[in-house]
Specification:
single chain, Uracil-DNA Glycosylase, subunit E, 37% helix, binds iron/sulfur cluster, 4Fe-4S, iron, Uracil-DNA_glycosylase-like_sf, UdgB-like
Length: 233
């Protein structure tokens, strides 16, 4: 299948009972500010071109963010911070991301996450991460011809993506490299025709980091620019 068919198939997944219940519960309760919204309330697929050279791996959609709008990093503060930075460095067509029909285009970049449904307290269980892993394995396989850098946003994304890269035939160093902001791990080609891939660590764009200054806009821009340059963007 191509990436579009994969995304379409993903939106029908019901493999995690707790998350199926939560994504629907959030849509039922809603936040007062969003009471006129019809929530997406399904798995949120990755977003960006099928020939992306850089993949950004977050954690999971937010109950009233991606789970409401149906697009990753759309309609919440994490998305605001990330898309503003991508726009600043020339990788997004506009600085805001509010609705899946708002016209946002990503240039050479795709968003995805290791867990595609909103979890309670924004914390998926290890079992849910395992259950969702095959979706990311397939997505990376389809992106393999073009993707050159993967940016893991936060330790969860970092830990989730290493086994996915190993499943795709990449030699992941042992012991597994630790997450840090600015960490970079180069993974050799998976086969004779393959290209090397670099994994970068970046603090997550959650308000817990962006509002406290742990991740400043300049730090985020610098890291995105470095990873994009390495990807040939
Ligand atoms: Fe399916 Fe992933 Fe959602 Fe679980 S988290 S129901 S595996 S899409």
């Amino acid at each position: 299948p191509d990436l579009h068919s994969l995304d379409t198939a993903l939106t029908a997944c019901r493999a995690c009972p707790r998350l199926v219940a939560w994504r629907q519960e959030a849509a039922h309760v809603k936040r007062p500010a969003f009471r006129d919204w019809e929530y997406w309330a399904r798995p949120v697929p990755g977003y960006g071109p099928a020939d992306a050279r850089m993949l950004l791996v977050g954690l999971a959609p937010a109950a009233h963010g991606g789970n409401r709008t149906g697009r990753m990093f759309t309609g919440d503060r994490s998305g605001d911070a990330l898309v503003a930075a991508l726009h600043d460095v020339g990788l997004a067509s506009q600085p805001t991301s509010t609705h899946r029909d708002d016209g946002l285009e990503l240039h050479g970049v795709r968003f995805t996450s290791p867990v595609h449904c909103a979890p309670p307290a924004h914390k998926p269980t290890p079992a849910e991460r395992e259950t969702c892993r095959p979706w990311l394995v397939r997505e990376l396989e389809l992106l393999r011809p073009t993707v050159r850098t993967v940016v893991a946003l936060g330790a969860f994304g970092w830990q989730a993506v290493l086994p996915v890269l190993a499943a795709g035939g990449r030699q992941v160093p042992r012991p597994r490299p630790a997450f840090a902001h600015g960490a970079r791990v180069e993974l050799p080609p998976a086969g004779p025709d393959g290209a090397p891939l670099a994994l970068y660590g970046c603090y997550h764009v959650t308000p817990r980091n962006t509002f406290t200054g742990r991740l400043s806009p300049a730090m985020l821009r610098d890291l995105l620019r470095t990873a994009a340059r390495e990807a040939g963007l």
